[in-house]
Design a protein that fits this description.
There is one protein chain. By secondary structure, the protein is α+β, with helices and mostly antiparallel strands. The chain has a single domain, classed as PPM-type phosphatase domain (Phosphatase 2c, domain 1, 4-Layer Sandwich), CATH 3.60.40. It has eight helices and ten strands. A five-stranded antiparallel β-sheet has the order 1-10-9-6-7. Strand 6 and strand 7 form a beta hairpin. Helix 1 runs antiparallel to helix 2 and helix 6 packs across helix 7. The longest helix is centred in the first third of the chain and has 19 residues. It is globular and about 55 Å long. The C terminus is likely disordered.
Length: 263
Amino acid sequence: MTRLRIASCTEPGARDGNEDDLRHGSSALGHYAVLADGAGGHARGEEASHLAVECIERGLCERTAQFSPEWLTAVVRQAHALLHQQHSGARPEASMHTTVVVLWIDADVEKALWTHVGDSRLYRCRHGRGELLTQDDSVVQRMVLAGLISAEQSRKHPQKNHLVAALGIEGEIAPHTVARAVHLLDGDAYLLCSDGWWDHFEPDDLVEALSRARSPEDWLQDMRAQVQAHAQPQQDNFSAIAVWVGNPSEMTIVRFEDTVPRR
């Protein structure tokens, strides 16, 4: 297996508490990264994200776990059911829910699975090109898909953070899990992040920061500094997990240098 390196960062922004939660680690099947962004009154957002991350991590580390889209989807649904159990009998104002995004890597076959619910995102930078791999469960994203507004207009839309799906909401959920495992390439860099983080970047910005980094910690620190420099007075919690396959910075630098005219 090509060497993996993982780093994480979570910050409260301008908020008193931090409703983001994240975790990464390894199990018999490989490596995982889980990030959640909770919401709810009376600190229940913090509880929701923590419970979801803990439940999903436990499911991915089970002795009987199978590296498959079906297992990953089932684990996310278990977290959804757990939040329902926690809310059972509580007052409506005590409800809680959370987004989630998960990256799961099989160390033996060098493949990845991912899934998400809500608007926490997964990006991939591959050989100098940034790509958003997830699609937000939001009112604004549905408007974009319907052709009512453009992607550019969606970035400043007042309803951009209004979700249509999250763990813990009433009814069933449909996690957006990839249909089959995706091959890893040497030099891939993945970024899982909450909306307080991704709101400041386009995919090309992630690649530019990657070209300056020598480690996943460097990459996160560069982006963290940018968020703090551009943060508004109501800056939300912002969190991210960086997963490097091999040395993405070398690949990115080579790609950038290839655009320089040769003599």
